[in-house]
Each structure stands twice: as C-alpha cells, then as structure tokens.
Amino acid sequence: MLRALSLALCLAAPLPAPACDTALLLAIDVSGSIDRGEYALQVEGLADALEDADVGEMLLAGQSALAVVQWSGVGRQALVLPWRRMLGPDELADFAREARALPRAFAASDTAVGEAITFALDQFGAVADCRRKVIDISGDGPENAGFTVAAARRAAETAGVEINAIAIEDMGASAPITAFYNRWAVTRNGFVLTARGLQDYRRAIRAKLLRELGKPAS
Description:
It is a single chain. The chain has about 220 residues and is α/β, with parallel strands linked by helices. The chain has helices spanning about 1-10, 35-50, 55-60, 90-100, 115-120, 150-160, 175-185, 200-215; strands spanning about 20-30, 65-70, 75-85, 130-140, 160-170, 190-195. The protein has a six-stranded mixed β-sheet, with helices on both faces. A hairpin with a 5-residue loop joins β2 and β3 (about 75-85). α2 (about 35-50) runs antiparallel to α4 (about 90-100) and α3 (about 55-60) runs parallel beside α8. The longest helix has 16 residues, at about 35-50. It is globular, with a radius of gyration of 19 Å. The mean pLDDT is about 90.
C-alpha cells in the first residue's frame, strides 16, 4: 500500500524544469546618434532574428533565457524586456512580438558604454542557474560619457560573463567603432561583428545570435 502510494506521488510530482544553457541579454544603443528610423531598424532587426528558424531552434534547444536593455548616457539604462525562458515556440513568438513593439526608453543623450555593461551585469542574478551568461551589446559610437568601459569589462570577466558586440559603422572601409569594441568592450572570449549601416543590422544580429548559441550562420 505504502509502496503504491509512493509511486503515485512520484508520478504526480512535476518534472524538473529543463536546464538553461545560455542567459543572453541584448543591450540596444538608443543614444542621440540613433534617429527614429535607425531605432526602428534595430528593434525590427532583433525581432526578425528571433523569428528566424535557425535562431529559434537554438534558443529552444538550450532553453535559453532572454532579456532586453536599452541604454544611452550616464544613468540612462532600462530593462525594457525582463528575463524570460524560451521553453517553447509560444514564449519565443511572444518575446519577438514584444521586442518589435518596444517603445524607445531614452533620446538625445550621450553614449556611456561602460554604464550599459555595468547595468547589464546587475541583471544576471535572476538567471543564476544558466550555464553561460552573455551580454550582446550593439552601438554606433565609442564611449563619450562615464568612461567606465574598461572597468566594466574587467568586472564582467571576473563574474564569468561574456561580452560580444555589433559595431554599427558608416558605409565604407573604415571601422573605428569595431576597433573600439574590440579594444575596450568585448571580453577575452568575446567577439565583434560589424554592421555596415543600420540596414545591415538584421544580417549582423542573426549571425551573432547563431554564433553565440553555437551554430554557424548560413
């Protein structure tokens, strides 16, 4: 009788939640150099990437956690989409839809890259069980306020958080933003992808997500 009751209780107990492979925080530049059209390209590019079949497959396979931060100048950072586990297609579709409709949190401000990273680091306590923790930052300019990016990167490395970046460059051969992110922002195990103008952002963020999640972009 007791054995049967124990078996029934075990069968009725909820299954443990799947392990989270990657907690990925997407940090979007909304500083003064980003106009209304460029902001729309960023959020639409992010939503398109999340709706991509290959990206979705990787997010769901790893039961990944996603969050979105918007950032600009000193003291101007906001968690605009809190952490959500990608446990199934419905969660992923909802997150992509909300990302596409995000209002802009800040406008007409400076570019405090270090403060954006520090704010992002503070968000990972809610996803401490995830195996990897990644900050995915995009921006179109070097740091011109706060000047804490080197210290913020060191703090990320100490905490075991990886920083990757999309550098949004002007059209042409020069790549000063890419060089800035490579030298000052990304961690030792991180990388930078270059988007040639905001129109190239969709391609770049899809490729970056696939690389972060472990699948080569095709």
